[in-house]
Amino acid sequence: MLIHYQNLFHAIAVAVFAMGMAMPAAQAAEQRGKPLQPAQINAKWKQECSSCHIAYAPGLLPAESWRKVMGGLDNHFGTDASLATEESTEITRFLVSNASNRWSTSTAPLRITEGAWFKREHSGRETPPAVWKNPLVKSPSNCQACHTRAEFGDFSESNIKVPE
Questions:
Q1: Rg from Cα positions in the chain
Q2: Which of 80, 82, 96, 161 has the highest CB neighbour number within 10 Å of its CB?
Q3: Cross-strand pairs, 76
Q4: How far apart are CA 6 and CA 163, in angstroms?
Q5: Residue 114 is part of which domain span?
Q6: pTM of the model
């Protein structure tokens, strides 16, 4: 009888431990792919990318997209944004190592606005077409127009203020 209770106690302990582990795993899965800045920011990335536009959070695109973006800086959306090889390598390494995992592995868009996540969050229901026509917004790539903490990679709904 004592052995039976020990086995029961062991089974309960294992179940309680597993349930305790399931919650952090569920939270980790929920957080996976969120477009937040990594804990360690690369100064060269911040300096170079934000000299023309917001330094987009690495988690907004998959690794292959960042490789394509960084490999085409000589024609970066109509602008020559070429960098020295060392700088380009450093920034590429940072972006790739902190890239999103929410995209399918076969998808490598050049624009954040091409993703299903972006489209879902900015659908006509969520973001009326008039928002994009607002001169203070101008385009979907102008994240900081509405997302007050975009430069920190924080796109939570609690930090949205659509300009009027």
A1: 21
A2: 96
A3: 79
A4: 64
A5: 43-159
A6: 0.71
What is the tens place of the pLDDT at every residue in 144-164? 999 999 888 888 888 899 998
Asked if residue 15 belongs to a domain, the reply is: no
d(C-alpha 140, C-alpha 129), whole Å: 10
Residue 71, token pair as written in the block: 């490999």
* Residue 31 counted as domain residue: no
27-44 per-residue burial string, b: 16 or more CB within 10 A, e: under 16 = eeeeeebbbbbeeeebee
**Whole-number Å distance between alpha carbons of 153 and 20:** 29
Based on the structure, what is the number of domains in the chain?
A: 1
Torsion angles phi and psi, residue 111, rounded to 5: -115, 135
Complete DSSP assignment for 78-111: TB-----HHHHHHHHHHHHHT-BSSS-TT---S-
Give which of 161, 128, 127, 121 is closest to 145, Cα–Cα: 161
Residue-wise pLDDT tens digits, 56-69: 999 889 999 999 99
